[in-house]
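Z., the sequence and structure:
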Amino acid sequence: MRAALARRPTLWVEVGVGLTWVALALAPLLLRPGSAAGGGFGSAGHGALWDCTIGLGGTASGAAGHVEPIVLAGQPVSLLATVPMLALMAVAMMVPTAMPAVRHVSVNSIYWRRRRAAVEFLVVFVGIWVAFNLLVLGALVAWAPIGSPAAPALALGLAALWQLTPLKQRALRACHRSRPLPPRGWRAFAGVADFGLHNGLACLASCWAMMLTTAVVGLPRLAWMAALTVLIALERINLRPRRSARRVGALLAAAAVVAAALALV
């Protein structure tokens, strides 16, 4: 194991991402309302934990214009109670796209603080995405049209248009930028945190529109998350980011057309 970590210092991060996907895949089975692991929430009638985390349609009391509160495993919860699931989603989807940055931090830190530096980077990077997801989730709870059949098509169309903007191209190029890291002391910590902040914000500026679609698509969300993760990762590692962004935009536009057609049926 030590030899493997020496050759590939990011191996433990990759294993952690894989385990996160397993946890997300098993969550609907383990925490399904009415199951033993779900705590006996069968009477709540809300569906599995996976859907409850971002399932915002419907009404809580039948009153017109009243938006249903966030539910977790079939029970109404506060927005902050969704943080663990949002963190898992951020690790599963966004950390794979940031592996070149994680490797940069690990390789360019002195040996005894390689793992610590990677953890510091990931805390900042994942924290940015958790904060974004909390902001989006809170906004969608207060936005009644989220339950409209046209919402998926609009979200996908917005994501496709964002792929073609100069701001998207600038953010995508910023995702590839690295910087020298101080070797030790508080400057090493500050350098890694600063790199994580800039890389995370660049990634957010590049991918926010695609991530927004995960809240409104009608497809199984785990499959949609996996597809987006692959697209974002390919876009990040491509040596011609402009061409890859356009191709991803074309795929999103096609998905928007399909979603619009389904909304009209």
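The chain has a mean pLDDT of 78. Residues 2-264 form one domain.

Let me know what you think.
H.
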